[in-house]
Design a protein that fits this description.
Layout (H helix, E strand, L loop, with lengths): L6 H9 L52 H10 L4 H9 L17 E3 L12 E5 L4 H6 L6 H12 L12 E5 L13 H18 L3 E5 L1 H8 L11 H4 L3 E4 L2 E6 L2 H6 L4 H21 L8
Parallel strand pairs: 2-3, 2-4, 4-6
Antiparallel strand pairs: 1-3, 5-6
Helix pairs in contact: 1-5, 2-6
Length: 291
């Protein structure tokens, strides 16, 4: 079935290297039509997804189960301003990843800001952890997955350089690379989570795009029951909230490089995020996040 796409939508798809059929082109990849705007709900908290038979390991311990050292660290980070937070990440030795990293990866983004203030951004993209290239350069999403993410952002009129006019900040749950690009471990996420939380408080984004299982679990663990055991594919297509900020879930670009057919699903996720952002912009100007 063909989609009724205008030239702008075709250009957006071309940026993502997703081919679709229209009368003057052959059928190659069918892209599902994103949900109509009227059907997109923005609940304060999401409903519980169906429980899976086989549960994956928990990624982040519950608050009551966290070690006292982590709780003290959280309280300390909560009072930091942007420069202090950057310094804290750069010098962090809270977990074993500090012994194998080349560089910490704080994040990158552009937007209007004053002296010693964070950039003012509309969009926050949260990934999982730095890879080899990110560890070398100290910037998130700079390898092949980064090129795909840049194409995805351009497809909806955004870029990390800030030339689009809408501020974008890109970061990860972990600020150091796990050796061999292995999955993050629970204690590593627990130590880095206060950094991400404070980044969100200071950046005050209007929407968060969470890409990858560990990013989704970290952001939604307090509001979505069974998020640790629910496959990412079943969490897609809904709008969640992180302390009042809309969150849209999608696949990690590195996964999309291995699973090309799911690029069409990622396109639908971007359409959903763009629609939500338009609603947020129409509803009210950016405001402080109630934390």
């Amino acid at each position: 079935m063909a989609l009724d796409l205008d030239r702008r939508q075709r250009a957006m798809l071309q940026e993502m290297n997703v081919r679709v059929w229209w009368p003057d082109a052959p059928l190659e990849v069918a892209v599902p039509t994103p949900a109509p705007a009227a059907e997109i709900a923005m609940p304060q908290t999401a409903g519980a997804p169906e429980r899976q038979a086989t549960a994956s390991p928990r990624v982040v311990p519950q608050e009551a189960q966290q070690a006292p050292a982590v709780q003290v660290r959280r309280a300390d980070v909560e009072s930091m301003d942007w420069p202090a937070l950057q310094d804290a990440v750069a010098g962090c030795q809270a977990c074993k990843l500090c012994t194998s990293r080349k560089n910490t990866v704080f994040g990158v983004g552009h937007g209007p800001a004053g002296p010693a203030l964070p950039p003012r951004v509309d969009w926050l993209v949260v990934g999982e952890a730095p890879g080899e290239n990110e560890d070398i350069q100290g910037e998130p999403f700079v390898g092949q997955a980064g090129k795909l993410l840049d194409n995805m952002l351009r497809s909806i009129g955004l870029d990390r350089q800030g030339t689009s006019g809408a501020g974008v900040f890109i970061t990860n749950v972990l600020k150091c690379r796990p050796p061999g690009n292995r999955n993050p471990e629970p204690d590593e996420i627990a130590q880095c989570e206060p950094f991400l939380k404070r980044q969100i408080e200071l950046l005050q984004p209007r929407i968060i795009l969470a890409v990858g299982r560990f990013a989704v679990q970290s952001l939604l663990q307090g509001s979505v029951p069974d998020v640790q055991s629910t496959p990412l594919g079943k969490l897609r297509g809904k709008v969640y909230r992180y302390h009042g900020v809309p969150v849209v879930v999608s696949y990690h670009p590195a996964y999309l490089l291995r699973s090309l057919p799911d690029k069409a699903k990622a396109w639908a996720d971007l359409c959903l995020a763009l629609d939500v952002m338009q609603k947020v912009s129409q509803a009210a100007p950016a405001s402080s996040i109630p934390l």
